[in-house]
Amino acid sequence: MGNICSISLPADRIVSCFWDGTTEHANYLRKLPENLVELGTACERLRELRNDVKRKVDIAEREQLQPLDQVQGWLSRVETLETQVTQLIGDGTEEVEKKCLGGCCPRHCRTRYKLGKRVARKLKEVDILMSQRPSDVVAERLPSPRVGERPSQATVGMNSRIGKVWSSLHQEQVGIIGLYGLGGVGKTTLLTQINNVFTKRTNDFDFVIWATVSKNVNLENIQDDIWKTIGFCDDKWKSKSRDEKSTSIWRVLSEKRFVLLLDDLWERLDLSDVGVPFQNKKNKIAFTTRSEEVCAQMEADKKIKVEGLTWTESWELFRMKLGEDTLDFHPEIPELAQAVAQECCGLPLVLTTMGRAMACKKTPEEWKYAIKVLQSSASKFPGMGDKVFPLLKYSYDCLPTEVSRSCFLYCSLYPEDYKMSKLSLISRWICEGFLDEFDDMEGAQNQGYNIIGTLIHACLLEEGDVDYQVKLHDVIRDMALWIACETGKEQDKFLVQAGRTLTEAPEVARWTGPKRISLMYNQIGKLRGSPNCPNLSTLFLENSSLNMITDGFFQFMPNLRVLDLSYNSITELPRGISNLVSLQYLNLARTNIKELPIELKNLDKLKCLILFSMLQLSSIPEQLISSLSMLQVIDMFNSRISDDSEALVQEFESLKYLRSLGVTITSASAFKRLLSSEKLRSCISALCLKNFNGSSSLNLTSLNNVKRFRNLHISNCSSLEDLEIDWAWEGKETTKSNYLNSKVSSHNSFHSLGWLRVERCSRLKDLTWLVFAPNLKMLIISDCDQMQEVIGTGKCGESAKNGENLSPFVKLHELRLVGLPQLKSIFWNALPFIYLNRIHVRNCPLLKKLPLCANSAKGNRIVIAGHKKWWNEVEWEDEATQNVFVPCFVPVGE
Where does the secretion signal sit in this chain (predicted)? Predict the structure, then answer.
């Protein structure tokens, strides 16, 4: 302690010993308390300004604007400075409170000095940030990404569809692609997936643009969708006129490569009105639509039909929406769930709707009830009547005429999966009075075919397995019945219980209101009573196991126009059928009726009488046919008639309005009489030549150029050796081969003939005249013991010897050869068989070679059926041909 020295000096001397006593430095010490207060106040003002700017930025971001970098930087610097100032004020306040040296000096003057200096500098930094405050514009709208990913759910079965569209988009010759299909099949989902593929794969396009079109087209909305991708959809853009927007879009896109994806087209969209340039196919447009016709109107380079899911895909999607917990809850549920999924017929929309609806159903009874509802009244199933059917109904609402809508609803009278004959459907439409645009039958038929085309293009009808049939998708049929039975002006006008396995007809009281009743494909057996049906126009009873109809059943049906009793076991018609005074269409095909009642004479409005394949029919009252003076169509093809067919031909001649005739002829004299009448010859649509005796040849030349002649059946003509055609040709310079080729390509041939069946003609050796039938679709030859060649080399002369380009059976779909022990050749060269899908050969031991090469039937799924022994002995053109067709073989029983 004694060593400590104490020295006393004034305070200002102490300070001056350490620092320069200038005013600025002195102020760091003297004004620290005041500066701290000023810094807090300045920082509060800066914080308020920061909050204002931040609020503006938040609003801009909600409007999808991008904050400016300088604004983001300023906010960041303010935040950093605010943290520093808060800490500094805390330190400074603590230091001011710790005073010494008589209240003037801190314990450590150097610390106070540094603190004062830092406060002064922060004041300057606050002033600088205040002066750098952002202007009112704090953000800007940036261009959208080159392609934006669209929200999508997990999908099933899309990979192959995506691949098909993706490859089409990259084909040089393809600029516009139309994706069409019925509602709910997944077109929008597919287009969405294509859009998202562009976000993942490298490509050369500057823009991938999505625009929704919809039923009520609004060009400005489409333009706005486009501009969101290629520009800035701000107030300036919104204030532009449609033409100005079109010009702006054109100016940008004309210098870029782009893909335009248009969803939900219902009619042609004029791209130039929107402003989309399309001078070349380097740019691509893909669109979705329910109408194939829209694809044509948009001049699509490629049309792709979006089909429903396969069963495997359908079941996967249904399980996904149902959930495994429900599926595993009870051992009966998986099988019942498959039954429900099958009712969806591959439509993703329906599978999704039904899967979700059934996700909470965990008892077999609930599932069985659901199946019953779906099969009897699908609209009552949750989500169907209020969501699915209204969506599908848009296609119906967009049909161009009331007639086309009526024709569509008419198709719902048939059972599920029924293949409707186009010609039969049109005949019924004519007799219902739908097709009255033309007075003549041909014009009305053309109108009918046009309507069928319209319905197919709208994806409301589908092509059948063969080109003369159409079918109705099960869900579309349910939608049609919903329209016909539950909505609009047709409500309660349809009573449809087709294919319901009924054993009794609906009670009589239910027959009073409906205009159309269909009880097809049931097991009713008997029709009793006399239902009062003042409104009934259509009654379908085909294939209902009927064996009896009481006499009074038709008594109170004054407006019935179409009656179908075909494919039933009835042996007679009730006498009361004479009360059907409005009847225009009567179908008795394939019934067991033995005699037509004379009471049919009262049906004086009858236009179509269908009697084909009535194998028990033995008698038609004299003058009955001729008394039906309004008949336009009569079909007695392949019916058994013991009466004089020559007399019947004479009655046909008296029918003034006859336009289509299907007839069975049982004698050479009747055949000659038929062909001698130019009127009847021009009407022939189907001809059955049966049980001819004593005629070794028949001349078919006069049947060429009969444009309605589609079906020929030759049966049990045991003495027939040759079917003659006029082989004569003019000019000494003309070879037979040139003549054949010219005849086949000219109008002088059987261009309309589509079906030929020849059976039990034991002396017939060939059918060479078929070179004149280029559009033949089906050929059946059976039990002709001496048939050696289908197309004879001898009759074709030089063509056969020189191997010249004669190519029959171009349109053939099916070839059946059965019981031909001498047959050695079908044709001497391999044929292209472009449409062939089936060959059936049985009991033809000498037929060692088929007219096939490696390129025949290319692209077809062809089936070749026959005995295994015969197949093992087939000789092939070459190894390549064998490799192509060996997998096609299906063995049949010996």
Answer: none
pLDDT category at 448 given cuts 50, 70, 90 is very high
Provide, for the chain, the percentages of residues in helix, strand and coil under a 3-state DSSP scheme, each rounded to the nearest 5. Answer: 40, 15, 45
**Does residue 784 register a pLDDT over 50?**
yes
Region of residue 184 (left: phi > 0; alpha: psi -120 to 50; beta: else): left
Tell me which residue of 543, 548, 514 sits closest to 531, measured CA to CA: 514
pLDDT value, residue 27: 65
Asked if residue 669 lies in contact with residue 690, where contact means CB atoms within 8 angstroms, the answer is no
Neighbours of 65 (CB within 10 A): 18
Q: What is the 3-state secondary structure (H, E, C) of 770-829?
A: HHHCCCCCEEEEECCCCCCECCCHHHHCHHHHHCCCCCCCCCCCEEEEECCCCCCECCCC
CA distances from 361 to 320, 325, 374, 378, 605 (A): 15, 11, 15, 17, 55
Q: Name the one residue in this structure whose structure tokens are 């008639």.
A: 641
Sign of CA dihedral 455, 459, 465, 467: positive
| CA-based nearest residue to 714, from 781, 775, 661 | 781
Quick: pLDDT tens for 494-548. Answer: 999 999 889 999 998 899 999 999 999 999 999 998 999 999 999 999 999 999 9
Looking at per-residue confidence, does 549 or 352 come out higher? 549
**Which residue is associated with the tokens 């760091």?**
28
Torsion of CA 100, 105, 108, 112, to 10 degrees: 130
- pTM for the full predicted model: 0.75
- Here the tokens at position 43 are 């920082």
Residues with Cβ < 8 Å from 444, sequence gap 6 or more?
A: 426, 430, 435, 436, 437, 438
Who wins on pLDDT, 206 or 1?
A: 206
Structure tokens at 588: 């008795």
Give the C-alpha separation, 429 to 450, whole Å.
13
Give me the pLDDT at residue 692, please.
82
> Residue 64's pLDDT is what?
60
779 CB-contact burial (10 Å; exposed 0-12 / middle 13-18 / buried 19+): buried
CATH number of 311-376: 1.10.8
Give the three-class secondary structure for 516: strand
pLDDT, average across residues 158-172? 88
The Cα angle at residue 328 between residues 324 and 333, in degrees rounded to 5: 110
**Torsion angle defined by CA atoms of residues 669, 673, 676 and 677, in that order, rounded to the nearest 10 degrees:** -170
Amino acid identity of 672?
K
What is the separation of C-alpha 26 from the centre of its chain, rounded to a whole number of angstroms? 91
Q: Domain spanning 159-305 has what CATH number?
A: 3.40.50.300
**Tens digits of per-residue pLDDT, 246-288?**
999 999 898 888 999 999 998 999 999 999 988 778 899 999 9
Q: Give CB contacts under 8 A, 24+ apart, made by 64-69.
A: 64/141, 65/139, 65/140, 65/141, 65/142, 66/139, 66/140, 66/141, 66/142, 67/138, 67/139, 68/134, 68/137, 68/138, 68/139, 68/140
Higher pLDDT, 286 or 238: 286
- Read off the DSSP letter of residue 371: H
Q: How far apart are CA 803 and CA 805, in angstroms?
A: 7
Question: Residue 627: enclosing H or E segment and its boundaries?
Answer: helix 624-627
Task: Give the span between the Cα atoms of 820 and 723, in whole angstroms.
Answer: 18
pLDDT at 631 over 90: yes
Q: How many CB atoms lie within 10 A of CB 686?
A: 21
pLDDT > 70 fraction of the chain, expressed in percent and rounded: 89
- At position 658, the amino acid (one-letter code) is L
Residues 6+ apart with CB under 8 A from 745: none
3-state secondary structure at position 299: coil
CA-closest candidate to residue 611, choices 590, 594, 629: 590
Q: Which CATH number fits domain 402-481: 1.20.1070, 3.60.21, 1.25.40, 1.10.10?
A: 1.10.10
